[in-house]
Design a protein that fits this description.
277 residues; Rossmann fold; 8 helices
């Protein structure tokens, strides 16, 4: 992907640091940009996915003048064999956001935990914050990334809006299918660590911290995974949360992209349109 972006999108920046590796991509046009720069959406992948996989959401946001920071955190993507997925994930996302906003200049250079295989030492060009409005930051999380994004948004006041796509409201460890439990054990560093992490996944516990945020929940009517209570249950805790329900959509709604992706990208762009959101 790095070689392709070098040719097609030279402004793309690969960033890395303690517990994170990401791609920062900037819109080509001035649409959406204010005096302080473009709004930014942090994209958070799920349990068994990576930052490079979600081209369609990234492209949709870029087309609307929104910059995108797609991030692998602990236990994800290029870091799947590194630091474990767990409750500290939001801190890695915070460090990644700090990096692109210029809070940690030089972070990610050298062979750190977030270094991507094949990345040249010193090739990271993040850290300047150029072109990004720090007052217009949102997040989109996909699958388990929906919970990770909500946790990040609940604890980082810079996040002004959140969209959760096929995210979990709560998990029941004993009802999960073997593929999910095995993958979680691998990503979390063992069965005991996975069980402890699963016990923490509860959007109801985050609801008081999410009341300040515009929220969009995107759900497919055919997204039924044993042991998973879908995030649409959050509407009972937070009536202000908007629900986009696609009856024929499966998990991540890959079979129904026209029925949710344009509306979701529009929603994020509109919510982040005003400076200070």
């Amino acid at each position: 992907m790095g070689d392709a972006l070098a040719l097609l999108e030279p402004s793309a920046r690969r960033i890395s640091g303690e517990g994170y590796a990401g791609w920062l991509r900037l819109p080509r046009t001035g649409e959406g940009a204010g005096a302080e720069g473009s709004p930014l959406v942090v994209l958070v992948p799920g349990m068994d996915s990576a930052k490079e996989e979600f081209h369609r959401p990234v492209d949709a946001l870029l087309a609307r003048g929104v910059a995108v920071l797609a991030v692998d955190g602990p236990g994800q993507g290029v870091l799947a064999a590194g630091p474990a997925l767990g409750p500290d994930h939001r801190h890695a996302l915070r460090r990644a956001l700090d990096h692109v906003l210029g809070k940690e200049p030089g972070q990610g250079r050298g062979q750190g935990q977030g270094q991507e295989p094949g990345q040249e030492q010193g090739s990271d060009r993040g850290g300047s914050g150029a072109g990004i409005d720090p007052g217009r930051v949102g997040v989109i999380g996909l699958s388990l990334g929906g919970y990770l994004a909500a946790d990040f948004a609940a604890h980082d006041p810079r996040v002004r809006a959140a969209a959760l796509v096929s995210g979990p409201y709560r998990l029941d460890q004993d009802a999960l299918v073997p593929f999910v439990t095995a993958t979680l054990a691998q990503r979390c560093g063992g069965d005991a660590a996975a069980r402890e992490f699963v016990a923490r996944i509860d959007l109801a516990a985050l609801a008081p911290r999410l009341r300040r945020l515009p929220l969009l929940l995107v759900e497919g009517g055919r997204d039924r995974i044993p042991g998973v209570t879908n995030a649409e249950a959050l509407t009972a805790d937070l009536p202000h949360a908007e629900l986009l329900h696609v009856p024929h959509g499966n998990h991540l709604l890959g079979n129904a992209l026209p029925d949710w992706l344009p509306d979701t990208a529009d929603w994020l762009a509109d919510v982040l349109a005003a400076p200070g959101a």
